Amino acid sequence: MDIFQMERSGYGSKRFPKLVVSFLVAFCLLYMASMVYRSSTFVLIGEVAKDNGAGGVAENATTPSESEDKHPSGTESMVVDKLLGGLLATGFDEESCISRYQATSYRKTSPHKPSAYLVSKLRKYEDLHKRCGPNTESYKRALKKLSSSHINGTTDCNYIVWTPSNGLGNRIISMASSFLYAVLTNRVLLVDHGTDMAGIFCEPFPNTSWLLPKDFPLTNQFYSLQPGNAHSYGHLLKINNMNISAVSQPPSFLHIYLAYNYDKHDKLFFQDQNQGFLRKVPWLILKSDQYFVPYFFLIPSFQQELGKLFPDKETVFHHLVRYLFHPSNQAWGLITRFYRAYLASADQKIGLQVRVFDRKASPVNVVLEQILGCIKKEKLLPQVDEQKPIASPSKNQTLRAITIASLYPEYYERIKSMYWMKPAVNGDVIGVYQPSHEEVQHFGNNLHNMKAWAEISILSLSDVLVTSSWSTFGYVAQGLGGLKPWILYVPAGNHPTDQPCPRGMSMEPCFHFPPDYYRISNTRQRLDSGSLVPHVRQCEDASKGIKLFNAKQL
C-alpha cells in the first residue's frame, strides 16, 4: 500500500500527527543529550587545563591570561592585582620588564596592602625623579655644584648616590634603605650597579632611570669610601669637635659610610639634630651593607611621616622590595623555567635556604642534623617510613616540592637521597631540587649575581620558608614573599641546638649593627626592650641587632 492509498483509506491521515510528534520528541532528546555532552566536554577540558596548565601559577594565583577569564566583567580588579594595590605605577613598557606585572601571578596574593599615603608618596617621588633624574636640566645644574667647595643658597634637586658593598642580599637591603631615606628627605636616589649587577633588575621608575651615569665626576672616589674618609660626614663632625653648627657653609657633597665597620663618628648620621644640616648638602654619596631602616623609626623628625607611610610596621621592607626590585627578562627566564619544571604542579612549595659562613666551624653533618631537627620539630615535612619500602596508596596524597638554596650541594644530596630511598610515612610525594651550587660566593661576578637573584626570587614563591640566621639573602626572599620564616640557627661547633629553627616574629630584615642609642641620644635607654617605641626590638637571630615588628602581634 503506497502513501496515496493510505491517505485515501484514512490510515495516513491518522498516522501523520503521531509521526510529527515522535520526530519532535526525538529531536529534543538528541539536542539535550548533545548539550550535556558538550558541557561535560568543556568541564573535562577545563579540568585538564587546570591540571596541566600550571606553567607558572602558585596557589590562589593565576597567569595573566587566566586572570582575564576570571574577571570577564571588567579589568579593574585585575589592574589592582597587577599593580599590587596601587604600589606599582602604570606607564611602563610591559615587554621590557615582563616580571613587573606578571610576578604577582606566581605567588599568593599578599594580605598586606600599601597605605593610600604611601601610594601617593610614591607617585610624587616618581614625578620628582623624572624631573631631576639623569640627563635632565636639573641634574646638569646639580652636577655643576660639585665643582664648588661649598654651597650658597638652595638647589632645586638633591641626591643620594648609593654605592655597592658586599653580596647581593646586602646590596638589596641597603638600596631599599637608601630609597626610603630619599623619600623621607626629598632626595633623588641614583645607584651605581657597575658591571656585576648590570641587567639583573628592571628600572623601577617610569620614564626615567635610577642608574648613575658612567661619567659621574666623583666615581673615582667610591673606592675610598671607608671609615674616617676625609670627605665623610663622620670626619666633618670629628674635626669640628662633634658640633655641626660650627660648620658655617655645607659642602657640595658628603660621604655617608654606614657599613658594618663604621666608626662612632659615622654613626652620628642617625642623630636627629644633624638631619637639618644634611638636608642642605646637595649630594650624599652613601656606602652601606645594612638594612638601616629600623633606626629611622627612632629619629623624632621622621616618626610622624613613617607612621603615615607604614601603619603596619612589619610591612616596610615587603612594600619597598616589591616596589623597587623586579627581575630583568633574563633573570625572569631563569626563575620561570625552574618554576614550571619543578614547582608548578606541587601542592605545597617549601623553600630552604642554608647559609654557612664558616664550614670548618659548622661541619656538614652537624648542619644537616640541625636541618632535619628543624623539619621534624616544626613538622614542616613528613618523616620517612623506616619499615615499608613502598608507601600505601592514598587518595589525599600531597606533592611537596622543596627548593634548597645553598652554595654547597651536600645538604641537597642528603635530603634528596633520604626521600628517594624511603617513602614518607603519610604517603606524600617529596621532590627535592637545587637550582645551583656555586661552592664559593663570587664577588664582582655578574652571572653569579644573576643566579643569586633568581634563587632569591624562587624562594620567595614558597608557601613555607626556612632561612638561615644572619643571612641577608634570606631576608630579601621573605620580604618579597611576605613570609614569616622559620629561622635556622646554623650551629658553630659539633652539636646542633635544642631550638633548631624557631618561627620568626616578623618578616622584616634585621639591622645587624645599629649604633648604641644611648650614645646617639645621650640617654641610658637601650634599644632591645621596646621601651623607646614598641615596634623596634631585638632581632631573633642577632642579639645586638634591631628590627621592626607589628606591636599588636607581640
UniProtKB/TrEMBL annotation:
<dbReference type="GO" id="GO:0008107">
    <property type="term" value="F:galactoside 2-alpha-L-fucosyltransferase activity"/>
</dbReference>
<comment type="function">
    <text>May be involved in cell wall biosynthesis.</text>
</comment>
<dbReference type="InterPro" id="IPR004938">
    <property type="entry name" value="XG_FTase"/>
</dbReference>
<dbReference type="GO" id="GO:0032580">
    <property type="term" value="C:Golgi cisterna membrane"/>
</dbReference>
<keyword id="KW-0328">Glycosyltransferase</keyword>
<dbReference type="GO" id="GO:0042546">
    <property type="term" value="P:cell wall biogenesis"/>
</dbReference>
<dbReference type="Pfam" id="PF03254">
    <property type="entry name" value="XG_FTase"/>
</dbReference>
<comment type="similarity">
    <text>Belongs to the glycosyltransferase 37 family.</text>
</comment>
<dbReference type="GO" id="GO:0009969">
    <property type="term" value="P:xyloglucan biosynthetic process"/>
</dbReference>
<keyword id="KW-0333">Golgi apparatus</keyword>
<feature type="region of interest" description="Disordered">
    <location>
        <begin position="55"/>
        <end position="75"/>
    </location>
</feature>
<keyword id="KW-0961">Cell wall biogenesis/degradation</keyword>
<dbReference type="GO" id="GO:0071555">
    <property type="term" value="P:cell wall organization"/>
</dbReference>
<keyword id="KW-0325">Glycoprotein</keyword>
<protein>
    <recommendedName>
        <fullName>Fucosyltransferase</fullName>
        <ecNumber>2.4.1.-</ecNumber>
    </recommendedName>
</protein>
<keyword id="KW-0808">Transferase</keyword>
